[in-house]
Amino acid sequence: MATADSVYNATTTQEPKSKKWIIVPSENLDKVRFAVKVIEVLFSFVAFVMEEVVSSCSQCGPLYFFEFVSCTALLFTLLLLILLATPLHQRVGINCWPTLDFGYTSAMAILFLLASIVFAADSGQTGLEQGAVAFGFLATVAFFIDSGLFIKNRGIPCGKGNNQQADHTSRPESEKLNANGTEPVN
């Protein structure tokens, strides 16, 4: 006869706490996509700084749109990178990180492409503006590469039958708890 310790010990023992702050690769982010996300942050930062240094504009609407997109990309991609590469993503309360990651990355790719095209078309053609546009297009390429790598490795997360996580909590339990667990369930 087995003792209570031998039966329950394996399921009740706490796992040792991991002291690692950066967990790459993980279930949400592999090494290649981690590097691409770092490049996205860097290109977005350079594009944002270069457009901020522009001292005058003939038509400021495209400049402001580019500023908004590059700043948004910088801050939110950095936040997403920190969350996905550290254990912090477990404390946020979001259950479907793949859908969030893919949706955000794809949306930023499209927004950065639009902002770069509009800014390139209506900029004053100074060196700073051209540099900002160049880094905007580089960031756009990085976001599209990130989306492509995501699709290649994991598929589209919101496609039919392609759920990344099985949702065991939303199904009603169909079995009754039996006194000894030996009775068949109909």
TrEMBL record:
<feature type="domain" description="MARVEL">
    <location>
        <begin position="28"/>
        <end position="155"/>
    </location>
</feature>
<feature type="transmembrane region" description="Helical">
    <location>
        <begin position="100"/>
        <end position="120"/>
    </location>
</feature>
<protein>
    <submittedName>
        <fullName>CKLF-like MARVEL transmembrane domain-containing protein 6</fullName>
    </submittedName>
</protein>
<dbReference type="Pfam" id="PF01284">
    <property type="entry name" value="MARVEL"/>
</dbReference>
<feature type="region of interest" description="Disordered">
    <location>
        <begin position="161"/>
        <end position="186"/>
    </location>
</feature>
<keyword id="KW-0472">Membrane</keyword>
<keyword id="KW-0812">Transmembrane</keyword>
<dbReference type="InterPro" id="IPR008253">
    <property type="entry name" value="Marvel"/>
</dbReference>
<dbReference type="InterPro" id="IPR050578">
    <property type="entry name" value="MARVEL-CKLF_proteins"/>
</dbReference>
<feature type="compositionally biased region" description="Polar residues">
    <location>
        <begin position="177"/>
        <end position="186"/>
    </location>
</feature>
<feature type="transmembrane region" description="Helical">
    <location>
        <begin position="132"/>
        <end position="151"/>
    </location>
</feature>
<keyword id="KW-1133">Transmembrane helix</keyword>
<dbReference type="GO" id="GO:0016020">
    <property type="term" value="C:membrane"/>
</dbReference>
<feature type="transmembrane region" description="Helical">
    <location>
        <begin position="63"/>
        <end position="88"/>
    </location>
</feature>
